[in-house]
Amino acid sequence: MKNPYQILGVSPTATDEEIKQAYRALARKYHPDKYRNSDLADLAEEKMKEINAAYEQIQKERARGSAGESFSGPGAGSSSGNGVFAQIRILINQNQFREAERLLHSLPEASHNAEWFYLMGCVMLKKGYFIDAQKMIERACAMDPYNQEYRMALEQLKQSTGTYGGGYRTARNVGTACDGCDCCCNLMCADACCECMGGDLIPCC
Asked: How many CB atoms within 10 Å of residue 39?
């Protein structure tokens, strides 16, 4: 089976509610009753089966805390790194991004494929380093241009942070002196991060 998150058109970091909403939208779109007595009836039925199976798989994986364990698409990384990448995905979903970053840095350079850069981008995003996150996910998209998950994440990141200009934090300027402008910028960046991950820190923005 393909990556269930790709089938539903959501990121593995999506919340349960976002996944449920995506499933319901697809179910309404492809429900067989809409295509009754149509030449597309069989295709709609097959698509609905795929959607149901993907949603059920995600629900089971999240229930047992092993989301991503059985990924088998371009977003899963190389076969040699699947187990580690699956573990890193779980850590990111659980907001244990520092441990996820430690594991990513522990992998040999030869395993730095598209999945590695995508996951590192997710870690940078969790830490609030928006420029670094965008660069990492752009690199993942360049290495695997047909991966819908990577492209969706990049587009969502651009939409969520595009209104704030160029004053984002990066991993290279952490630890510099903080002034009032930095605090304001950091607050806006935190809001962008929350919106990208499905929340909203500052409702008015």
From this structure: 7
